């Protein structure tokens, strides 16, 4: 009986031990499986690329691994609880080895869950970092492009370009902060992403943006200096423009002054003023050249705006003024030359008048024959006409230059008129002398013709005297012959007296130069 009970007891214990051994074996298998699942989940968690560019794929994988981790952790907890309940039911404490395994399993399960939570947080952070990275990259790229277009824009004037540079200078600080954030986020992406091509792309992008931003800084500094120079050139151009504008206005006022002269020295003085004004055109041309140079400097980095029109306008106005000054100066030169010739001819005519008067009134001239005196006066009359023509032609040539704005006052005309009057007076006097001398010459010719006639008569009477004096003439009546001889002699004496009287008259005519008023008896 006792052996039977003992055997049954042993059989019961053996059965329990067999069951317990099977339980422990099964438990070990479950623990190994749970541990393996958690280890696999940990491996997958560790292999996750949370910074992969495909965030949706990362989220899907996270969700899949998370489900498996949660399930494995839940199963591990269930196994742990079931195992503890089993030993509690058995009224036994957990074996040390099993307790240690359960504790390790619990820790691994908790670690996997915590790790999964960390991975979720890190995924969110990765998404935020990648979002901020791309946002900042686009923002910095857009700003650099905008800044580059503004800095390199030559279609605006330097004042607008200066405003652009000031805007860029104010914005570059915040852009630099953005680029630092891009650099920091890019460095994190490069460190944590497993995609080599993406690492290279991000690194190149960061390096490129850094280089571009530095280039913008360099351009900004260079452009600041260029814009400063352009603004100085702009200001200098305006000063040159205003200076040239004032010069043009002064020259226009000078050109608008009436050109009236009383004397040749006054005309020459005005010519000198115009010569000085034309010489001053060199200064104006230099101003235009400097304006062109400043305009070229401005155009190197910006638009010249309205300055081109101002340049063209001023060049045209300067050219018009210069042309007018040269035209008037040429007219003044021609007028001065004509006036000088006119005065020279006036002096020549005045000298000729005095010389002619002195020559005609010279006592030595009185000793010349009346015919020579008459010829001299006739020549003088012809010369008077020539001298008048000279004065008229000289004055007409001079009058050609006396326009509305250029005219001489009455002095030169008055001098010409006075000379014309003097020539007229000389002409009248010479004409009177010619009339007198012509009358004298006519009388002399008449006396010489009478003397010729009387001499012919005397030749006839002398022949008659020789005839009546011949012994053969009236030999019978000598008294008649003597009477006729005496009559012939008386006639010869009378003729000789007449000839002498006419010779005396001719002599007196030559001496007096005035005709006889009482004719001689024939």
From TrEMBL:
InterPro entries: Spectrin/alpha-actinin. Its main location: membrane. Residues 307-334, 437-464 form a coiled coil. It comes from the Eukaryota. It is found in: Endomembrane system. SUPFAM superfamilies: Spectrin repeat (SSF46966). Gene3D superfamilies: 1.20.58.60. PANTHER family: KASH DOMAIN-CONTAINING PROTEIN (PTHR14514:SF7), PKA ANCHORING PROTEIN (PTHR14514). This is Nesprin-1-like 3. It comes from Homarus americanus (American lobster).
